[in-house]
Amino acid sequence: MFMELSLVGIFIGTMAGFFGIGGGMILVPVLLVMGFGIKDAIGISIIQMVFSSIFGSYLNHKKGSLIVGEGIFVGLGGFLGGFIGGKVTHLVSDNVLQTLFLGLLFFAMFRLYFSQNHSDESQTKTLNKGLLFFIGLIIGIFSITLGVGGSIILTPILVGMLHYPIKKAISAGLFFVVFSSVAGMVSRLSTGTIDFENGLVVAIASLIGVAFGIWLKEHVTSKNHKILLMLLYVFTTSMLIKKMWF
């Protein structure tokens, strides 16, 4: 199991760096297929997200693709939301969690598919800081309850509503995961519901993938990046549907 989890970690890390996701939207379904329960899978996912998001955001900042600015207010909301979400998970049934996760994936696909492509020079819109905090709060509660970092919701919002270029939105999405996942891990640890041993195996291995994924991100066009992100959502949704009904 150690080798399998290490390989999964490298793969998830690559996806996290390339797509700016925490990795939970892929990792949770993969762990379910491997035989883990939904709540154990969510716990492992949160640990992995802490490692990959911090390291990935550091690399994105060094490359100049991370806009911190308003992301701080969304992130602080996400931190509070992630802490609340970590407390809620054990109160919700497995079937409800999986159904919510499926709905989240469909929402992300819809928003991303109908979003326009913006160039790196596009003027991004601004929102009230209180509203940004509230958006982060809601995303944090919803995402950590499901074991995902939140960028799956935030990235389509940044691209479709605030005119962020896809690559900068992806970097901002991964930065948001730092706040939500750290809060989620602290909250989950206080309830004793995290598989730390397996989580660390996946998390440490994911760092290798994160570095490769961020390098790869710089070598594809924005249009192809969006297409690949859509394919990722379709693949993950298919895996979850197979687990739930077949």
What is the helical fraction, as a range of percent?
Answer: over 70%
Beta-strand proportion? under 5%
| Topology, number of strands | 0
Question: What's the structural domain tally?
Answer: 1
General description of the model:
The mean pLDDT is 83. The protein has one domain (2-245). The longest helix has 26 residues, at 38-63. The radius of gyration is 16 Å and the shape is globular. α1 (2-19) crosses α3 and α2 (24-33) packs parallel to α10. It has ten helices and no strands. It is mainly alpha-helical.
Outline the secondary-structure elements.
Blueprint: H1 2-19, H2 24-33, H3 38-63, H4 71-88, H5 94-113, H6 129-146, H7 151-160, H8 166-190, H9 196-217, H10 222-245
Helix pairs in contact: 1-2, 1-3, 1-9, 2-3, 2-10, 3-8, 3-9, 4-6, 4-8, 5-7, 5-10, 6-8, 7-8
Keywords summarizing the entry:
246 residues; mainly alpha; globular
